TrEMBL record:
Any one biological process term the GO annotation gives: proteolysis
Family: Belongs to the peptidase C56 family.
Name by which UniProt lists this protein: Protease
Pfam families: DJ-1_PfpI (PF01965)
Organism: Caryophanon latum
Entry-linked NCBIfam families: PfpI
InterPro entries reported for this sequence: C56_PfpI-like (IPR006286), Class_I_gatase-like (IPR029062), DJ-1/PfpI (IPR002818)
Length: 171
């Protein structure tokens, strides 16, 4: 089964981490948390969900994992300010490894400069940013681009998002 890297910082959208994590684990996949430093505890912005970071970004490479999950909230905006996280995410896009992103998650991908010509969805406040990055925006609950990039808009879309990420990893 797949080993899924999840990049997290404080103020992530709680359900956009917990719901995909649960769906992935139920399907037999391993979900690993990566942050600034192993042992840090990050908290969700809505419910205060506490997550202990398993690995610091310096301790891992994209080659260690099969897929990348980028939950939304303010976390992706924090992470994109650090070149290490940008390079980490960029490698998945360059290698066409599965990337799962929801809500504000694509903010990290915008900084990778890998969205030109790609199809994606996301939350309304970042639509212009996605278009400026060269992406083709679709206002739908889930979009799967090139059997690699799975994106959704908001927590309301989680059932469709979870279905598609599990489906993609089953291939």
């Amino acid at each position: 089964m797949a080993k899924v890297a999840t990049v997290l910082a404080n103020d992530f959208e709680d359900s956009e981490f917990t719901s995909p994590k649960e769906a992935l684990e139920e399907a037999g996949h391993e979900v690993v948390t990566i942050g600034f430093q192993a042992g840090d505890v990050v908290k969700g912005k809505k419910d205060g969900t506490a997550v202990t970071i398993q690995y610091g970004i310096e301790d891992v490479t994209p080659a260690d994992f099969d897929a990348l999950l980028i939950p939304g909230g303010y976390s992706p905006d924090i992470l994109r300010g650090d070149d290490r996280f940008v390079a980490f995410a960029k490698q998945y896009m360059d290698d066409m490894k599965p990337v799962f992103t929801i809500c504000h998650g694509p903010q990290l991908l915008i900084n990778t400069e890998t969205l030109k010509g790609r199809d994606i969805t996301g939350v309304k406040p970042i639509v212009i940013d996605l278009k400026n990055a060269g992406a083709k925006f679709h206002d739908v609950e889930v979009f799967v681009c090139q059997n690699q990039l799975v994106s959704s808009r908001t927590p309301a879309d989680l059932p469709a998002f979870n279905r598609e990420i599990v489906k993609l990893l089953a291939k």
